Amino acid sequence: MPSYFFDRGQCAQNASLRGQYDFLQAQRAFQRNSESAWASIPMPGMACNAAAPVPYPVYAQMDTQTKRVMAEPGSETLLLDLMPLALPLGFGTMVHQYKQIGDGGAVTTSMSGLEPVPNDQTEHNYDSALVPVHQSGYYREAREMAGLTEAGWSTLLDDQEASTRTVRKRMSDYLLDGAVDKNGRPLRFKGVESYGVRTSKHTVKVALSVDLTSLQTAPDTVRNQFIALRDRLRVDNRVDGDVTVYVSNEIEATLDRYYVMEGVITATRSLRQELESLAGIGAIKPLSKLKGNQLLMGAVRREYIRPLLGQAVSNLALPRNQPFARHQFMVWSAMGLEMQVDIDGRSGWLYAASEE
């Protein structure tokens, strides 16, 4: 199963992921060789200029910590749910194209299997998505690093965990809203704009007329609203299988009351249980980045959505250009999002919110 971090089994099975891992190891080796060069310069009494390559066991601890942080449940729900759908790419892929497929072409059915092979061309268009870099970092002064090599690396590991959490949050935010440049406009490269599930042109946009955050809204009214939203995908857009609903914390807070219909309390089930019993509703989950009367609904399958992984989350030390220079470390990933629609523009995801 693909993931946002390096896994030995996945690297063995996927050439793109293996290439990413080899690139990371080459960068780490470059830093080690650079530090070894400083060690060859005699500087009596200047312990702070001693070489400080990161030992392999420390990198191993960092990698283990990266896996733990990136796979940690309980937050960034959308990021975790989409992780198995991630498509590993080469590190140099900055824009990824995919085909919007229409009719699959001609097909024959026979008992003999000897019918002429049909060569009808599948109708298609192309669409593109960005794969930007998300990074954070931390550093140590030269003298401070000398003390670390003597006393251990625990504080450096603390910094690495904090930076990994920062990158994880940025990746989560990107999946929802994309990224903007310093002027507040969507990040853009070669005419392709950054987007997230909420901001994508391929996401169905619905204006809610029902306040799902209010306990005054009748449970049956909430149920009817969920049915209407579900049908926008399953009926109008012909989406097969279950969809997952991501709701704001404010909406989720109203779902554990008893389901009431025509003044009769059904004490055997909550409103949440009633909604999840609807055909096609697979699960309802909170998403803290959503606020107030907002929700996402979508099919968590690769034919509709997938993260694009140009570089798995990893940590490396950067080479220094002089002995007294800071020791800098980077936690980074290259990840984009691809929302897929067919040639008729039918999507498997929708975003619903009150009209502003």
Question: Topology, pairings included?
Answer:
Blueprint: H1 8-13, H2 15-39, H3 56-70, H4 77-82, E1 87-88, E2 95-101, E3 124-130, E4 133-140, H5 142-151, H6 154-177, E5 188-189, E6 192-193, E7 204-208, H7 219-236, E8 243-247, H8 249-252, E9 258-261, E10 264-270, H9 271-276, E11 281-286, E12 294-298, E13 305-317, E14 327-339, E15 349-354
Parallel strand pairs: 1-13, 7-15, 8-11
Antiparallel strand pairs: 2-3, 4-14, 5-6, 8-12, 9-10, 12-15, 13-14
Helix pairs in contact: 3-6
Explain this structure.
The strands form five sheets. Strands 7-15-12-8-11 form a five-stranded mixed β-sheet. Strands 1-13-14-4 form a four-stranded mixed β-sheet. The protein is globular. A hairpin with a 2-residue loop joins strand 9 and strand 10 (264-270). It folds into two domains: 8-102 and 126-192 and 304-339, Major capsid protein gp5 fold, CATH 3.30.2400; 203-301 and 346-354, hypothetical protein PF0899 domain (hypothetical protein PF0899 fold), CATH 3.30.2320. By secondary structure, the chain is α+β, with helices and mostly antiparallel strands. Helix 3 packs parallel to helix 6 (154-177). Helices cover 32% and strands 26% of the residues. It has helices spanning 8-13, 15-39, 56-70, 77-82, 142-151, 154-177, 219-236, 249-252, 271-276; strands at 87-88, 95-101, 124-130, 133-140, 188-189, 192-193, 204-208, 243-247, 258-261, 264-270, 281-286, 294-298, 305-317, 327-339, 349-354. The model has no long low-confidence stretch (mean pLDDT 86). The chain is built from nine helices and 15 strands.
